Automatic annotation (TrEMBL):
Names of the cofactor(s): Zn(2+)
Species the sequence originates in: Thermococcus barophilus
Taxonomy, superkingdom: Archaea
Transmembrane segments: none
Ranges where the record places region Disordered: 229-250
Name of the protein this chain belongs to: Putative zinc-dependent protease
Length: 250
């Protein structure tokens, strides 16, 4: 099973809607036997009778004062997150958290069922923007992925998907998360009625079926299962090497 950390950055205004989308994505993945799961909580690894009663801690990062930028537009001032800053925050969090979890596993001699996630999806409440280096204006992004030192960093803004109807708002975010997961596991853009077909307008996005087309669906499953098989084979190989090493030492 491939696990992906899911982080929310922003105020509480959209938190419930984002959590609905997160839940629906995991439900979709489970119902379609896709071996990927999003994790919205820090792993709970303590043993003991009180372990089940321990509250889980949602992964919500608060941006520091002055982190946002204000842009003057034709429709007034817009508060946004700098894309580069968000990617740096997510990368730093991922490196730190992977190290902390590894230390906990080693301290308690726990053999995890799955590898520690090397991918994080950061969902942010404000628009994501970056200044064009050649022209004096800001470019907006719905979602961005960046690979840094073997770690996959994904940022998605929910602001462009806003709708006063929470169900519609959540459905838009649901499709956006599936879209970014598709990219994370090797899918390119698609021209079919599919979440991998990027929209030109929000109306187009609403018309997209909340699903992968058959071609993208099969490719996604192949890509994920190939990674899982590669991991399992590596684990078996390591086990054999350890046994051979023990025999030689004996």
């Amino acid at each position: 099973m491939k696990t992906v950390w899911f982080v929310y950055i922003g105020n509480n205004s959209y938190r419930d809607v984002v959590f609905y989308a997160y839940t629906d994505v995991n439900k979709y993945l489970a119902e379609n036997n896709i071996p990927i799961r999003l994790i919205f909580h820090h792993p709970r690894v303590r043993a003991g009778e009180n372990a089940e009663n321990m509250p889980e801690k949602d992964i919500i990062l608060e941006s520091k004062p002055g982190f946002t930028i204000t842009i003057n537009t034709g429709k007034g001032k817009v508060v946004a997150y700098p894309l580069e800053g968000i990617l740096d925050v997510l990368y730093g969090w991922l490196v730190k958290t992977r190290h902390e979890v590894q230390e906990i596993y080693e301290m308690h001699q726990i053999e995890p069922d799955d590898e520690i996630p090397d991918t994080v999806i950061g969902v942010v409440s404000f628009p994501l923007v970056t200044r064009n280096p050649y022209l004096d204006f800001y470019e907006k992004f719905l979602g961005v992925q960046k690979k840094v030192s073997g770690l996959n960093i994904i940022a998605v803004s929910v602001s462009p998907f806003y709708h006063p109807n929470k169900l519609k708002f959540s459905n838009r975010i649901f499709k956006a998360i599936l879209h970014e997961l598709g990219h994370a596991f090797g899918l390119d853009h698609c021209s079919e009625n599919c979440v991998m077909n990027p929209p030109s307008t929000i109306e187009e996005w609403d018309s997209r079926v909340p699903d992968f087309c058959p071609k993208c669906f099969l490719e996604l499953k192949r890509n994920v299962e190939w990674k899982e098989n590669k991991r399992d084979n590596t684990s078996i190989q390591r086990g054999e090497e350890d046994r051979e090493s023990s025999s030689k030492d004996a």
